[in-house]
Amino acid sequence: MHWMAKKIGTELLKKNLIKFEEYSIYEYGLELLFSSILTSFSIILLSCFCDSILWGILYLVITIPLRMTAGGYHADTYTRCFLISNLTYISVSQITHCLLNLNLSTTSWLLILLSSTLFILANAPVQNKHHKISETKLKKNKLYCRIYSLADLILFSLLLDSPLLHPYICLSIISVMLVALLILPTQMRKEE
Q1: CB of 131 within 8 A of CB of 174?
Q2: Cα–Cα–Cα angle for 52, 176, 59, nearest 5°?
Q3: For residue 40, how far is the Cα from the chain centroid?
Q4: N or C: which end of the chain has fewer CB within 10 A?
């Protein structure tokens, strides 16, 4: 990824599409883009083998906006990020299957969703110590995180009793719980 980002950045420089001062920003942005595409593709592929492509897409649709605005744990390397992202999808998938097999009541699912949402609302956004953002961006993230969290809470609560959508809503609830859990390590480090 680093090699590809460097190569494309160099080509952009040669063609005078970017300024030399912007090179490192573009290189970093391209690395993130390639990493995100590769990780998303891998999760979609995994979902095809583990569950269904719809589960993978739904997982990404729920977690990406929340993670981008809520923050939380971020791996130090792209390889670690790739592995952790794939393992978290597998974990969310397996936890959802286990809880579906236990036939949890609607109240139990709502409690998982409500407690996860409240935790996110109380603790997000969390700053990544390696990539500090401005106070303005932090406020914007907080607003968007609240909007996403509350929209998820309302939507999933309303759709939870739908027999056809039940497994998908349960996956969505566990995905929200994952975002809350990924805030924990950062919060604990902040308190130390």
Answers
A1: no
A2: 20
A3: 10
A4: C
CA distances from residue 117 to 5, 18, 162, 181 in whole angstroms, order as listed: 36, 41, 21, 11
> Shortest CA distance to 94 belongs to which of 157, 46, 161, 148?
46
CA angle 158, 173, 66 (to 5 degrees): 105
135-150 pLDDT, tens per residue?
Answer: 898 999 999 999 999 9
Q: Which residues of the chain have pLDDT under 70?
A: 1, 130-131, 186-192
DSSP string, 84-148: HHHHHHHHHHHHHHHHHHTT--HHHHHHHHHHHHHHHHHH--B-BTTB---HHHHHHHHHHHHHH
Tokens of 11: 């080509």
d(C-alpha 74, C-alpha 84), whole Å = 9
pTM score of the predicted model: 0.86
Distance CA 141, CA 192 (A): 24
Q: What is the helix (H) or strand (E) element at residue 73, kind and residue range? A: none
Instruction: Choose among 153, 159, 87, 75: nearest CA to 120.
Output: 153
